[in-house]
Batch of 2 targets.
Target 1
Amino acid sequence: MSLSVRMQHALPGIDLDLSFDAPSGVTVLFGRSGSGKTTIVNGVAGLMRPQAGRVAVDDWVLFDTDQGLWLPPHRRRLGYIFQEGRLFPHLTVRQNLAYGRWFAPRKAPRENPDKVIEMLGIGHLLDRRPAGLSGGEKQRVAIGRALLASPRLILADEPLAALDDARKAEILPYFERLRDEVSVPILYVTHSAAEVARLATSVVALQDGKVVRHGPASDVLADPSVAPAGIRAVGAVLQVRVLKHHPDGLTELDAHGSRLFLPQIRHRVGEDLRIRIPAQEVILSSKVPEGLSALNVLSGTVDSIRSGDGPGAIVAVKTPAGIVLARVTRRSVAALDLRPGSPCHAVIKTVALAPQDVGGRIRSGD
């Protein structure tokens, strides 16, 4: 399945005018507050009526202003996951899950409830009520309720924003499984670069109601002009494989023949992953570094240099592991005499590779 969105709508302070296509998997709407992310999701859901446009999932048209077609929200076959679980407090987890099935058309393909419960790890919660659940548990139940509604499309509007870091780490693997095991498109709103790097099949970067970039996470996160958090969100996304867990608490990764070390992770040996390396955690050397405590050194050549209006620059280094980005000063670029094609070595502190920047590799490829 694929989602096609075309939308124009004028609001105070923003004129929405955009179009994009979203394949199966997770398409992330990525942008600063006020860029139009939630407005788009509400327009797709039917909670807001755009002045012009068209939204369709394959041949299932949700609205088309040219044809005068508008399906009300309850007929759109959507699963909506909000920032908070929004579970019915008087119902048990089992009853909340069943609620989604009550609204599914009789002839619609249905997810196996036992499979969904197993995938989300909520079997032991079925007889509890929401008041007895943690924030992460509530979100897992909310995901299950959305799936069991037999949706043609799943909408997730900043579903991790209300959770602390520990709960986010708990929920992210379930969204990865959802991406890999469910055939319907997922439209996911976030301003977190780490969530984009881990989850996105494709990214739609938004600014002032317009699409400024659309493509793989590795391309979008490398562009400081579209990162919601500005220069601090810029980073590289590398494809790696778990090679070995060492007894000293480190995990060794194979990055296309190069070796990387990071604090031990839960992933098993042989598993394919993708990791995000923030540009601000990389330093550069024009010569092979010696006598450093850093274990990760990727050698290559300068691919490009982008200087901003301030003192900083983003240097892209082409290595066998992939493109690595470094945020350095323009003075350092000059001192090292860096230019496209010149030899360069990217040094990455092991502890700079955080667990939240490590996620399962998309099985269908990027």
Note: The mean pLDDT is 88.
Target 2
Amino acid sequence: MTAATPLLPPADWRDFLALTKPRVMTLVVFTGLCGMLAAPPVNGHTIHPIIAFTAILCIALGAGAAGALNQWYEADLDAKMRRTQKRPLPDGRMDRQAALHFGVGLAAFSVILMFVAVNVAAAAILTVSILFYVLIYTVWLKRRTPQNIVIGGAAGAFPPLIGWAAATGDVALLPLLLFGLVFLWTPPHFWALALFVKTDYANAGVPMLPVVAGERVTRTHIGLYTIPMAIAAVAPWPLGLTGPIYGGIATATTILFGVLALIVATRTTGADDTMKPEKRLFSYSILYLFVVFGALVVDRWVFA
């Protein structure tokens, strides 16, 4: 006879919340909200507050669902990395089946609610974003190629498009540029992180760029990707899609991003290096998106 597999105790609500990656969700929700607030009125009317709240709720639930399904699929990797070992699944606080059901249920509910309460366009883009993150990034790319972040970055770039579509029912040039900004921001953001947690990724067998190609190549790529990111960030201003408030703030904050990225791209490290410039770039990159998207909303309200 074989011993029965011990049953895990019921998961705490905090464990389900942790599955949704709430810190990541904060930036997703914020960029989606800014995309919505920057959208122009349709037939002289702005989006109804209740519909707007519902759309943001759906974006949050969809992002949470993607995070839960990501952790369900990557439980074995998370168990091997120090920074993720305390997540609910690798720490043994939750059954994998419960995480799968939670993620699928949350994803289905978010898409159906967006379709019924908001519009088809927003629901369609939300569906694509969830499937892209789970199937393209998590299942296909993450374990197979050092370009996982480059291609997979599209998953986190959808929220401004969803927010805009929720308000207008369609997509325009400005939200596409915002999509491009987040898409191009993702590689230098994550590669900065990967440089100072390279050992974690190596232990888990994840082919992140520093593990596969080395630090020097990664640093060069951070510098190279910052250039088109900067263009996408500033472009709405000379194209006449935003006013000087956005233009000035986006230009100033992007220059600082470029300086920090240049420092990371050109430096060499020793075995005992504390990676302070890399950590500084990673932290600033998060603040950067908050500031740029916030400036967009203020600019649109002032010059609407």
Note: The domain at 14-170 is CATH 1.10.357.140 (Tetracycline Repressor; domain 2).
